[in-house]
TrEMBL record:
Keywords: Viral release from host cell
Record-given protein name: Phage terminase large subunit
Domain Terminase large subunit gp17-like C-terminal: 316-460
One Pfam family here: Terminase_6C
Matching InterPro entries: Phage_terminase_lsu-like_C (IPR006517), Terminase_6C (IPR035421)
Gene3D superfamilies membership: 3.30.420.240
Origin species: Dermabacter vaginalis
């Protein structure tokens, strides 16, 4: 298709057809789908979409909390509505993977088939889920994953719905760069003159596609951010500060408060407020809850005994590959859980060779005989240590790291931010200062061994379902009796 045809096609998009009797995508959704819930936020999105489709070269970014109807409105009903205005509109929908984009293509096609009152029908010779056109017209939908080709496909309207699958993808510099290259090298080059682009996404990272577009061309892109909770006088919905979003899912204030607590400040700020913070911004608290009196008693053998009110006691070890002046440290910690709060009881932090590491774990086990499990990261010296100590320490357990260091730290942030993690005062554990310094500087600290031990422990205490009543996992009382005997002379 030559340039003149593209201009004519773009011009048609901005002149409403007599076919359309719906003033907005929301009006179409309400008319056709009895399950549609319309909220003030969706009213605002509807108006932004109408403005975009009637403004040549419009560039619109929409951010709103997850599961509040933005994708249904933008990726389902908006394309359908546009095609009622001009059935020759060639629409492309892209998402983080081809399957997700194809789902939207299939849904729009099904709606057109299910609701013939819109006057549209699918051409019989081109009706694939991801690639179809309207009968008797050039318009239709082509769906592709980010990174997919658009060669030979002029686009009159481009929708990008969540270019990142999850936080792990958004925090990958490689994937962020791939998404950006797809936009600059593929997507943007296929746009017909005047074609609008609408990006809707969950914000995970300050340098995600939305962040980079706004930084690259701030005067070009309109950013419609509808936060879950109003933060000031410039709220797009005119809410008072602190007021929560009227939810399509019926969430009330208590539901939002619960989500806010569970998400933690970083996830809440990014996903629900549309304001992702840089990676170096406070993963851990500046001030930790402290306890100043011992939670244990010490018997005549030097064993530290906890009252039975504690629900669980564990050790967590982060090991190293070798002992040298520049290698990482071995970090071992003892944690106890009581009524939903975790307490650091003890910590070892030193450069240790293999034999010294075994001795340190045995010593910690003898000192804290009620520790039900000894969690050891299953890499570096971990496998050899586990093999050497398995017969001597009941409950020694390998842990396969899930995600990178930063991801594991973020996973436990809701608990640290909520004040559920307590550290001892320095007079009870002098080397706790090392942990505080590493958490303060994380992820930019020279060493993060104590942080790794901490996140491993908190993941096990708070996030991992604990097995009960079988196998090698013994109760605290069983372990106390066993280790009083086995380590009595250690």
């Amino acid at each position: 298709m030559d340039g003149l045809d593209w201009v004519e096609a773009a011009a048609r998009l901005f002149e409403p057809s007599v076919r359309s009797r719906w003033e907005s995508p929301g009006a179409l959704a309400l008319d056709l789908d009895a399950g549609t819930v319309q909220t003030p936020a969706l009213d605002l999105i509807d108006q932004a979409l109408v403005d975009a489709v009637t403004t040549p070269n419009a560039r619109l970014i929409i951010s709103m909390p997850p599961q509040e109807g933005k994708s249904q409105r933008v990726s389902r009903w908006f394309p359908h509505w546009v095609l009622t205005r001009d059935p020759d509109t060639r629409i492309a929908i892209a998402s983080y993977e081809h399957g997700m984009a194809r789902r939207w293509g299939r849904t729009i096609r099904t709606d057109i088939e299910q609701y013939p009152t819109t006057g549209l029908s699918i051409a019989s010779d081109q009706g694939a889920q991801h690639d179809w056109r309207l009968n008797g017209h050039q318009g239709g939908v082509y769906a592709t994953g980010i990174g997919g080709a658009l060669t030979g496909r002029p686009v009159d309207l481009l929708l990008i719905d969540d270019p990142f699958k999850d936080r792990a993808q958004a925090e990958s510099a490689t994937i962020r760069e791939n998404v950006w290259n797809w936009w600059t090298d593929v997507a943007s080059t296929r746009l017909a003159p005047g074609a609008p682009v609408i990006l809707i996404m969950t914000r995970w990272h300050h340098d995600d596609l939305a962040g980079r577009l706004l930084a690259d061309a701030p005067d070009t892109w309109r950013f419609l951010n509808i936060p879950a909770q109003a933060t000031g006088d410039d709220d797009p919905l005119g809410r008072a500060e602190g007021e929560y979003l009227t939810s399509t899912r019926g969430r009330d204030e208590q539901d939002w408060e619960r989500i806010k607590r569970q998400a933690g400040p970083r996830t809440w700020s990014a996903l629900y407020q549309g304001n992702p913070t840089p990676e170096t911004a406070g993963v851990f608290p500046n001030e930790w809850p402290r306890y100043t009196h011992p939670l244990w008693t010490v018997d005549h053998e030097g064993r530290h005994i906890l009252p039975q009110a504690f629900d669980r006691v564990i050790q967590s070890w982060d090991l190293t590959f070798k002992n040298s002046a520049t290698s990482d440290y071995v970090a071992g910690q003892v944690w106890a859980l009581q009524n939903g709060r975790a307490y650091l009881l003890d910590q070892t932090h030193a450069r240790l060779d293999f034999t010294a590491t075994l001795d340190a774990i045995l010593a910690m086990t003898a000192k804290w005989p009620q520790a039900q499990q000894v969690f050891v990261e299953d890499k570096a010296n971990g496998p050899a240590v586990i093999t050497s100590l398995r017969s001597r320490i009941p409950g020694i357990t390998p842990v396969e790291p899930d995600g990178g260091k930063y991801a594991r730290a973020v996973a436990v942030q809701p608990f640290t931010a909520a004040g559920a993690v307590h550290l001892p005062a320095p007079e009870l554990l002098p080397n706790v200062s090392t942990l505080i310094e590493e958490t303060r500087d994380f992820p930019d600290a020279a060493h993060d061994d104590t942080v790794d031990a901490l996140t491993q422990a908190l993941n096990q205490l708070f996030l991992t379902p604990l097995l009960t009543g079988g196998g090698d996992i013994l109760t605290a009382d069983d372990l106390l009796d066993l280790r009083m005997e086995d380590f009595g002379g250690y």
